[in-house]
Amino acid sequence: MKKDVLNALSGIYPNTIPSKETLNHPGIIHHVTGIDPFEDTPKAFEIAWEKLGIDIHVAKPRANAKRPTKGVDTWKDGNLRFSPLGIYPTSAWIEYCPHIPKTDIEWPFQYDATKDGFLSEDKVGTIPDMEMHATFRPEGGLAGEGNQGTIRQLREVTSDFNRYFGNKAVQYHIYYTTLFMWPIVKFGWEPFVMAATYNPEKFNEQLWKPWSEASRKYCEIAATLDSEVIFMHDDIVSGTGPIFPPEFYEEYIFSRYNYILDPLVKAGKKIVYVCDGNLDYFLERLLDFPFDALHFENPATPFERILETWGKAGKGFIGGISTELLTNGTPEDVKKHTRKVIEAGRIYPGFIISSCGGLHGDIPLQNIIAYFETRNEMGIPADLTQNIVIQ
After folding, report:
1. Is CATH 3.40.50.300 correct for 2-377?
2. pLDDT exceeds 90 at position 283
3. Which of 134, 126, 45 has its CA nearest to residue 87?
4. What is the distance between the alpha carbons of residues 80 and 2, in angstroms, rounded to a whole number?
5. 20 to 30 Å CA-CA from 241: which of 61, 190, 199, 286?
6. What is the reported pLDDT for 386?
7. In the chain, what are the domain boundaries?
């Protein structure tokens, strides 16, 4: 329920431990709904979210998802390569910034970051509602599907979500490029790191500064939304830890966070910081910012360290369940892991359970069932009874 989420983000023990999941597994959705999720995607998601006890999720889709083509591993569409992932595919650039010649390591400086931001209101937004929670850069979409959205569309989807779900759920609004993510999605990791290291001051003037303004603008818009919670994403680390020395982050990234977030703070929004990779080194430092919760990836970031820092600070923390274990472990492994996470996390008021990498189609169905069965046994309700739809 929404109240449980807001309590957890406020350091108040909720009645029931809340749940945030990226639900993208056709098997579990069909299992609990009896509906082919490609035949009636909106209804299937609506029922599955409620039966599985998911309190934070994306907007209800308005159209059916495209059924994957059997035997097709990847496919191209323009400058994107898609791969099946579940009900919705994932995508990646075939080439970053194809319009820029890549003759040396300085090619990122040819990119004009001042043009990043929002589409004007006189344009038609084409981004699907299921992806409206993501960044409104020109590429749009959480996975960069090449679609576009407008500010008006963002407001409409937010209002529609609240009218439909009411007090049942919190919408998963995630702005994907708080600051550090901008050059990653534009240039890729290696060109970004090389250019930022080769000429950091030029990178600062031409790229960090305009991108911080674009992100500040998003926060100004998000501050007006009919939504209590906003997720701000920034993968500032890799799976092993920081990419740059601490001084780099202090000068170019952390020094701008308060400026970017200020409109949300003044509007009284709950701000959740989302970051994949190993955040161990920065866990204490991030407590200095006006984040009400941390949505982290584990085991990359040790769960024990999360409890010692964000848990003991009375802050919210979203995660705990290893997607790697869900994918590669046995049902008994999953049950044992889930019990351990819930027992450790429920001591603190801010615990919100989540499978960090999402529940995608490559996870064995029996493992997802084991996960939700264990949650249910430990007081986080999930109804796994099979619906039978009579045609």
Report:
1. no
2. yes
3. 45
4. 36
5. 199
6. 81
7. 2-377
